[in-house]
Amino acid sequence: MSDLPLPQLYAQTLTTLDPIFSDAVSLSAASTQSTLADALEKLHIIQRSLNLLGVYSDNEGWEELSEGALVFMTIGWVVAGCEEKRTGERKERVESLKRSEDACQQFVEVLTSYGIITPEEKAGFNLDGRTPSDPASRRDAKIQQYRKEKDLKERISAKVKRSGGSSHISFILALLPAPPRQSSGTSAFSLPDQEPEHEQDRHLILDVLRLLSVATYSALSSIKMELDILSSAHLEEIPSEPSRDPRQGGRGEEDTTWRLDALPGQNDPANLIAPGGKVLKPFTILPSASRETDRQKLKGEVFRQGWRLPTMTIDQYLQIEQERGGIISGGGQASYDAPTESETLELEAEMDGTVYAAEQAEKKRLKDENWAAYTDENQKGAGNTTNKG
C-alpha cells in the first residue's frame, strides 16, 4: 500500500471520489465502479489503522480530540456514500445498501457519543432511519433538514476559500493537506505545516460533521425505500406453490382429454379447417401481422371474450383456402388484356421455319374448322322458335 501518511492518503482517496460524488461521471461505467472499489479498500485500511492506534474512546468528548481525529470522523460518511453508489445484480445491490445503512448508523452513533450532535437533533432529523408516519411531520422534517443544510453550507463556504467546489467531498478535502509529490514524515494525526489558506479551526470541522449528519438523513431514507422496493420485487419473483387436492391422486397424468389448456400442435391453423372447407373448431380471425400495430394489439386485448379461442391470421386463412382450391384466380383488367387462345395460337403460328410453329398452325386450323362446322350445324336463331327474348 502507499507510504503516505493517513491524512494525505485520505485526501488522495477523496480526490478520486470527488467527480463521483459530484455526479460528474456515470455510476454504471466500469471505471467508476473500479474507482469505488479501490477507494473502499483504502478507506477500510485507514479505518483499521485508526482502530489499531486507539484514536477514539467511548469516554471522551469532541473537546478532547485533536483536529486530525475530528477530520477522520468523516470517513464513516464517505464509506456509506461509496457503498450506496455501488451497482450490480439485485443480490449485490441489496448487500451494498445494507453495508451503506450500517455505515450511516455507525457514523451517527459516533457523532452522538462525542456530543457533536445532540440526541434531540438526532431524533429531530430522524437519523436513525425511522420515517414519521404522519405526512405533516415528514414535511416539517424535510423543511427543517433543508434549512439547516443550507445554513451549514453557507457558513462553511464562507470559511473555505481553497476549494472551488461546494460538494461535501470538497468541504472535507479543504480540511486535509494536499497529497505531496514526495512522501514526507508527517504524523498521521497532526495536520502539517502546509495548512489550507483559511485558518484551520475546530468549529469549521464541527460544521462539516454536522452537515454530513444532516445529509445522512436523506441517505437513510433513500436506502430504506430502495431496500423495500427490492424486497417486494424479490417476493414477486418467487412463484407460489399451487395447492394440490389429494383426492385427485394421479388423475391427469395420462388422461388429458378433460384438460382445458391447449396441447402442442392442437391449435395449429392447418388443423382448424378440413380439406373440404368445414370448420373443425371455432377460432378467431386476427388482422394481418404486417398491418396490425402495437396500439391495435393492446386495444384488442382490453375488450374480448372471457375465454381464449385458437387464432388464425387473415394470411393463414387465405393460404389454406388457396391450397384447397377455394379461391378463383384471374379476372380483372389483367385477364381482359391477356390474349385469347385463338390469338395465342395465331401468334405462335407466325414463327415460320419451326416445328412448334407448324404444330400451332395445325391446331389453329383444326379449331377454325370445328368452329365452322359448329356454326353450319347450329344456325343463328335456330333454337329460338318461339321468338322469345
From TrEMBL:
Highest taxon in the source lineage: Eukaryota
Residue segments, region Disordered: 238-264, 369-389
Any single biological process term in GO: regulation of dephosphorylation
One term under GO cellular component: cytosol
InterPro entries on file: TAP42/TAP46-like_sf, TAP46-like
Single GO molecular function: protein phosphatase 2A binding
Pfam families noted in UniProt: TAP42
Chain intervals with Basic and acidic residues compositional bias: 238-258
Protein name: TAP42-like protein
Organism taxonomic ancestry: Eukaryota, Fungi, Dikarya, Basidiomycota, Agaricomycotina
